[in-house]
Amino acid sequence: MPRLLTQCAKITLPMTVLSFVCGLLLALVLALVQVANIKGLKQFARFYVWVFRGTPLLVQIFIIFFGLPSLGIMIDGFPAAVIAFSLNFAAYNSEVLRSAIQAVPVGQTEAAYMVGLNYFQLMTRIVLPQAARIAFPPLFNSLIGLVKDTSLAATITVIDMLAVSKQIAARYYEPMPMYVETAIIYLVICTVLTKVQSYLEKKLEWKQPEDVGEEKPALSDTAKLE
Fold first, then answer.
1. Domain map of the chain by residue range?
2. How far apart are CA 35 and CA 177, in angstroms?
3. Interhelix angle 13-36/128-149, nearest 10 degrees
4. What's the CA dihedral at 54, 93, 163, 4 to 10 degrees?
5. Cα dihedral angle (134, 140, 141, 143), rounded to 10 degrees?
6. pLDDT string in tens for the chain (226-residue length)
7. 3-state SS class at 194
C-alpha cells in the first residue's frame, strides 16, 4: 500500500491535474471557435471533436507513443499520456462548454453590446462566468473519469499505481490483494472528488428570490373590512 500511495502522489495525481488543465484550456478554445462561428476554424474544431470522440482513448495513446516515432517524433511515456488524455478530454468537454455558453440568454449579449462592451469583455464578464456554473457538474464528472482513465498510462511504460501493482503481483503471485488495493485507492480519490463536487455545487447555486412560487396568504374577512 505505501508504494502504491507513493506512485499515486508522484504519477497519478500530477498526470490527472496536468491533463485536466491542458484539456480544459483546449476545450475552451474549441468551444469559443465554434460559438464565434469563425469560418475554417469552426470546421476544424468539429473535425477534431469528431475524430477524438469517435476513436478509443487507448488507441489514441498508442498512436502518440508507438506511432509517432515512425515519423521521427519521440515522446516519453508520461508526456505522451498527458498529451493523449488532454486531447481526448478537450474533445468531449468542448461540447460541454459550447452548450453552456449557448445556454446564456441572447438578451444579455445584446445588452452588453449596447452598453459598449467588446467581445472580450462580454465573454470574460458576462458569458463565461454564467457558463462556468452551467458546465461545472459535467466538467467535474469528466475529471473523476479522468482519474480512472490515467490507469491506461501503464500500457506505455508509465510506472503508475497499476503498473506497480502488476509488478508486485507478478513477484509475489498475489494479484487479488494488489489489484483490490489499487481499486480502493482509486475509489477513495473519486469519493473525495465527489464530495468536493457536491460542496462546490452548493456554493455555485443561483440565488433564488425568496417569494418566487409562494402564494400569499389570503386576507381574512376582518382584514378586508379594515
1. 2-204
2. 49
3. 140
4. -160
5. 140
6. 677 888 888 899 999 999 999 999 999 999 999 998 888 899 999 999 999 999 999 999 999 999 999 999 999 999 999 999 999 999 999 999 999 999 988 888 888 888 888 878 888 888 888 898 999 999 999 999 999 999 999 999 888 888 888 888 888 887 888 889 989 999 999 999 999 999 988 887 754 434 434 444 444 444 444 4
7. helix
Residue type, 51: V
Give the right CATH number for 2-204 from 3.30.70.141, 3.30.70.2520, 2.60.40.730, 1.10.3720.10. Answer: 1.10.3720.10
Q: Are residues 193 and 140 in contact, defined by beta-carbon separation less than 8 angstroms?
A: yes
Burial of 203 (0-12, 13-18, 19+ CB in 10 A): exposed
- Residue 152: partners with Cβ closer than 8 Å, 6 or more residues away: 57, 58, 61, 81
The C-alpha cell that represents 170 in the structure block = 507478478
Q: Which residue has the cell 467535474?
A: 140
Grid coordinates given for 67: 506511432
Q: Grid coordinates in use for 61?
A: 495513446
